[in-house]
Amino acid sequence: MQTYSRDGLVFPVRDQGPPDGEVAVLLHGFPQDASAFDAVAARLHETGLRTLTPTQRGYAAGAQPRGRRAYALQETTADVLALLGAAGVERAHVVGHDWGAGPAWALGAAHPSRVASLTILSTPHPAAMARSLVRSTQALRSAYMAFFQLPGLPELVLRRRLAPLLRASGLPAEHVRRYTDVLRSDGVATGALNWYRGIPFSSRPLLGPSRVPTTYVWGRHDPALGRAAAERTGAFVEAAYAFVELDAGHWLPETRPGDVAAAVTARVREAGRA
Length: 274
Known about the structure:
eight-stranded mixed β-sheet, 8 strands, alpha/beta, 12 helices
């Protein structure tokens, strides 16, 4: 499959690897696109996994609904369920990085029958994140999220300043060029920022504990996501859990694809033995 649809929106999807393999869904974050997982996916294919990597709403020309509510967690989660339905997949291993972790955590909480396992990269469980805001430096690290709620101005700033910010955060140059080019496409900057603007409209039941086997991978040098939330995340998983700490920053799929693929593969194998 090359695309799938939901409510009139059309999402590109990379369907790669052994067609009869177990399925891993790879969900990119901000301001990435599906290419963020290229090196990870190639390694997963070698282990026999089939990967489905969608371009998420806001980033695809055919999937840029207007309004903040259209980017609430219930909508982005339903997009992944629609992908599984279109692919004829009952249960999948779900991998989410950055904002891609939002629907991944929600699937593990609210739709465990559709999830064989979770591998979460960088972004802690939402409840752990919320608690860390008042008990650590996380509020300072997350201050940019309040700025992103403003209309218009963040788009202007991102178009002018995104490239140097990404370089400073440790993202390799080839990905900086790719992501900044994508963000300059019509509507993409607003669509990408709307993931932040949809936070107030997200459904609370989707923020419950994960009920599926879960691995959380965190880079100790992540400038946006600190240790307090990372270490609290295990308290919000009601199944087998592993915490993998890397000597790395935020961009784990791009900079540590071997470690990410190893974590996914280990979780898939563990889920198969359960």
